[in-house]
Predict the 3D structure of the following.
Amino acid sequence: MRPLSRRSIILGLAAPLARPSGLRAQGAVFDCDVAIVGAGAAGLSAARQLQKLGKAFVILEARARIGGRMFTDTRLGAPYDAGAVYIHWAERNPWRDIAAELGVTAVNNDALSTASEFFNDGRRAQRRGDRGNFQAIDNLFDPEKGEVPDISMAARVAALPVARAGGAEAIARMSLGDEPENISALDYARLWSGDDLLVPSGYGALAENYARGLDIHTATPVTAIDYSGAGVALETPAGRVTARAAIITVPVGVLQKGVIRFAPSLPGVTRDGLNGLGMGALTKIGLRFDGARFGLAPATDLWDRRGPRSSFDFECWTWDRDVIVAYLGGDHARSLVARGERAAIETALDELTDLIGPDVRKHFVHGVLNGWCADPWSLGCYSHALPGNAGARAKLAAPVADRLFFAGEATGGESFGGAMTAGGAWLAGQAAARAAAG
Ligand SMILES: Cc1cc2nc3c(=O)[nH]c(=O)nc-3n(C[C@H](O)[C@H](O)[C@H](O)COP(=O)(O)OP(=O)(O)OC[C@H]3O[C@@H](n4cnc5c(N)ncnc54)[C@H](O)[C@@H]3O)c2cc1C
């Protein structure tokens, strides 16, 4: 990882000085065939595909690290995945094969002996989510059981008895990261399912491993893209890069905020696509303990429902490490993240104290907040279509002027079945690379 090379800066600067409109003139000197914006799953996958196709490319990454939302956080002294953790629908997920090729162990989640304990406002509750409950919810989102309309998840489950509708709302917040009113039922119904694998050494670490040997310009945010000419010109604080095409893997939230200025402005179809998507707020708080286990076996889940709209899930001692990971989503997560890391950790500890007892604080060592919804380079956990906007992903995926290709989890997989996931992002990166190379 190094800053933009002197050569690429000089090459890049030469074009605008001579031709202020960017690359309009014939015979412009391009730094490379394709510029890739972002070094997450989609960007890395696009790079590998372009490598195979023998194309020259540059990868520009805003953060000082790579992997994007695949990130194994080591600040607790034990690795834990702050973003993606499961290799979902593993039967067809490319990360399963990548792990195997790199000699990285992946374990089927079903093989782990996990236990779940349920609480309501800190008080032990009956086991939630009997099989019938899940089946009833699942039926509403199974296209094989009947057409799923493009209405909100909340509206879709409104006819269920209150307890079951509550289960669906928990799925929305804790699995998709947002309130059920904000999520298109049809978009959710399209998602692929299958086996889930876990990577003990870290899914984020696997992405880093996969990137090894790629020349990635970190700490190099793209601030503007001019595609008015024959190719594209990308502005960064380290200089200008010119290419025949750009693959833009920047998360939807960042694009919506206008962090990258496009000239000319993006066409209506792309803007419609962006406006039709939302970003969830799934959040993790990592808590390190001193070895005390409070009588909880490794891989125990503690679910606590606090009022109708807020829940915590505590994943305890996964891989027998001294770490508890607290999960929360939706507006509850947004408001807690807005209060900052210290308040988030304190709140999680208060919750845990209610569930486990006062010894929690005695054995707590330190914690970290991974508040993706406030992280300027993600501004959310992953995308969902808003109700009535199930076509938004296709609109965003449509190439712009044959030289801008938006790719990432938001456009992942055939019929967007891989959306929201690292596997989908990888597939989207491959598709964008083939299109850009063409
Ligand atoms: C809490 C959480 C849990 C998750 N759990 C799972 C899971 O279990 N399984 C799963 O499959 N998926 C999971 N996901 C989703 C998964 O992490 C993402 O779908 C996937 O990693 C997205 O990859 P991407 O390449 O599309 O985007 P990203 O990984 O976000 O990559 C985009 C890159 O662009 C960079 N960037 C942004 N702006 C600029 C700019 N202006 N210039 C240059 N670079 C820029 C970013 O820094 C980032 O590195 C989870 C995500 C979160 C947040």
